[in-house]
Amino acid sequence: MCFNSAQILRKMTEGDIKYGLKVVLSKIQAACSKRSSELQDVTPRLVAVSKTKPANLLVAAYEEGQRHFGENYVQELEEKSRSPIILTNCADIKWHFIGHLQSNKVNKVLCLPNIYMIETVDSQKLASTINKNWEKYRQSDSKLKIMLQVNTSNEEEKSGISPSEVVDVAKFVLNDCNNLELAGLMTIGKFGYDLSNGPNPDFICLKKCREDLCQKLGIDWKNVELSMGMSDDFEHAIELGSTNVRVGSSIFGARAKP
Ligand SMILES: *Cc1c(COP(=O)(O)O)cnc(C)c1O
């Protein structure tokens, strides 16, 4: 995606965020009504991806009723989730970690206030490390929700387990990770896919992974979420059955390139 410098430099206000959020929520509603009948009773969750954005803008979204927020850098999530402005104004915030998580940083994420879900578990080893460590940090005996990140586009630079490994890793989580709840599957997918070529193959692939998983392990597909869709394609993803869309720039404005 390309933004001109004026868009990058324009400073977003709290009002802009509230407006952007409303627009995204109404587009989600519209996309829901286009789904096939078997998908009608699922309401997709909006995760507002707030990376690089200042805490006051998150508070604006929270005041509009937004509860789920996503961050993809450990340090940034640490700073935001512990910042006084978030702790005082957003008591019920639910954080999703959506970036690459190295094993040696697991504890830094698990100890954070209001950590809700890790969407990017990309190996059996990482699942095992999170499982072992969650006991130390959890408040009650609650399980930590995780998703398995699948590299549906088979790109070398992308993290994620390959589609052929999904059943085995899911089985490991279900059988050997008592402290984890397998919430679903997640993909990022190829950037810039042109929808005029038909349904996004990454989304079709993730759906197929769920089908395999549910069939082989005897699970109801309604209990396995699909996290797919970002600013450019969340409506399309919802039409294909996404239950969790991760939307950043359409709510908070363009991000400056790092
Ligand atoms: C940044 C990010 C998003 C949101 O991207 P937008 O195009 O700004 O909506 C979603 N998912 C992940 C994993 C991301 O890193």
Automatic annotation (TrEMBL):
<comment type="similarity">
    <text>Belongs to the pyridoxal phosphate-binding protein YggS/PROSC family.</text>
</comment>
<protein>
    <recommendedName>
        <fullName>Pyridoxal phosphate homeostasis protein</fullName>
    </recommendedName>
</protein>
<dbReference type="Pfam" id="PF01168">
    <property type="entry name" value="Ala_racemase_N"/>
</dbReference>
<feature type="domain" description="Alanine racemase N-terminal">
    <location>
        <begin position="43"/>
        <end position="255"/>
    </location>
</feature>
<comment type="function">
    <text>Pyridoxal 5'-phosphate (PLP)-binding protein, which may be involved in intracellular homeostatic regulation of pyridoxal 5'-phosphate (PLP), the active form of vitamin B6.</text>
</comment>
<dbReference type="InterPro" id="IPR029066">
    <property type="entry name" value="PLP-binding_barrel"/>
</dbReference>
<keyword id="KW-0663">Pyridoxal phosphate</keyword>
<dbReference type="GO" id="GO:0030170">
    <property type="term" value="F:pyridoxal phosphate binding"/>
</dbReference>
<dbReference type="InterPro" id="IPR001608">
    <property type="entry name" value="Ala_racemase_N"/>
</dbReference>
<dbReference type="InterPro" id="IPR011078">
    <property type="entry name" value="PyrdxlP_homeostasis"/>
</dbReference>
<feature type="modified residue" description="N6-(pyridoxal phosphate)lysine">
    <location>
        <position position="51"/>
    </location>
</feature>
